[in-house]
Specification:
about 375 residues; mainly alpha; 14 helices; globular; disordered N terminus; disordered C terminus
């Protein structure tokens, strides 16, 4: 009998033709998309909770070693995280309050730029102010027509966010409290023979280890990016450097495009509220340098040593996740691909798919 917990087909078993397997895979993927779309109201908070539970698990085990009890250790771990997050958010909010005081100045600057643009179009392109006003009025009317849908979407998104935030602590607590029960479930479900749980335990431990390292690595990357962004913006003399630096680093949790989106607010701030064109160019230089360091040194060294995902697959996961679950999907689907790769690399029948998802990792060599 095979030592793996996934059974291999024997000579007595019927092998299905390639077209049948391909058809079944496509049907399965279609059903998966339908389930992910229709059940995202529960799958999304469950996915976030599972990732956060894996991150908190080492801290919970540390408190358990101090004889604090399982339930109290879980609650204390969540309290520690909430306190840390509250401290970071309070620091950012102070900076944001100071930045908000400049909003009227930004509005006046935008009016000036708008009037200059209107004058330029009238002189160079030949479009009169009346025609420009007509186009602007049409745009405003279209915006008003769309505002109803926009407001309803914002209300829905806000409601969903508070719902998820309310469910997260509950889900995390029970996931950590009953983790041994879940482990036993997978042992009974996938063991090749009763009592032989070695390979199931090895796979589950590997998934948890790699996922923890991946998530902790991403948090480390965000912290490093926050320091680099803030230091660079402070050196070039941009106001509110801490707010812009931390904000851009938090968006880096969205792979590839997050740091670009995070660079836009400080760039626009520098363009509108500084008298020199050198400052916006320096802002571009700071974020370009940080992006180069992050893509070539920081993330590969901290995160890529554990899970190396094919960039093309990561981009596809990013697009699909955004389409199915919005911003939450863009955050969740890339680490989910990393977990799938770990599973595929450990199961002989699925190793080709693991190879397709990214560079193979010799786990035995790491140990």
């Amino acid at each position: 009998m095979s030592k793996n917990f996934i059974h291999h087909p024997t000579s007595g078993q019927k092998k299905h033709p390639f077209w049948f397997k391909t058809t079944m895979i496509l049907i399965g993927l279609s059903l998966l998309v339908i389930v992910l779309t229709t059940a995202k109201f529960i799958l999304m908070p469950l996915a976030f909770s599972a990732f956060l539970a894996m991150v908190l698990n080492p801290l919970v085990r540390l408190f358990e070693k101090w004889k604090l009890g399982k339930a109290f250790s879980i609650i204390l771990s969540m309290v520690v995280v909430i306190v840390v997050l509250a401290g970071v958010l309070s620091l950012i909010s102070v900076q944001f309050t100071q930045f908000a005081e400049r909003v009227p100045e930004v509005s006046e600057k935008l009016k000036t730029v708008s009037s200059q643009t209107i004058g330029f179009l009238e002189e160079q392109v030949g479009i009169s102010q009346e025609e420009q006003s007509k186009y602007l009025e049409q745009g405003v009317n279209n915006l008003i027509d769309q505002s109803g849908n926009l407001v309803s979407s914002l209300v829905s998104a806000t409601t969903n966010m508070f719902t998820v935030l309310g469910l997260l602590p509950i889900f995390i607590f029970f996931m950590l409290y009953y983790q041994e029960m879940y482990k036993t479930f997978f042992q009974k479900l996938f063991a090749a023979k009763k009592g032989d749980y070695t390979h199931v335990d090895s796979l589950l431990d590997r998934i948890q280890e790699v996922t923890q390292n991946y998530l902790v690595g991403m948090l480390t990357v965000i912290g490093i990016l926050a320091m680099l962004n803030t230091t660079g913006l402070f050196i070039i003399g941009l106001e509110h450097a801490l707010f812009f630096g931390v904000f851009a680093s938090l968006l880096a949790i969205i792979p590839y495009i997050g740091i670009i989106i995070g660079a836009l607010p400080p760039l626009l701030f520098a363009l509108l509220l500084t008298d020199s064109l050198i400052t916006p160019l320096l802002v571009i230089a700071v974020f370009g340098t940080v992006q180069f360091l992050e893509g070539n040194f920081i993330t590969p060294k901290i995160v890529g040593s554990k899970v190396s995902i094919n960039p093309f697959v990561a981009m596809v996961a990013l697009i699909v996740g955004g389409q199915l679950w919005g911003i939450s999907g863009m955050i969740l689907f890339v680490p989910l691909i990393g977990i799938l790769k770990v599973i595929f690399d450990q199961i002989p029948d699925l190793k080709p798919y693991g190879y397709l998802l990214g560079n193979s990792i010799d786990y035995n060599k790491e140990e």
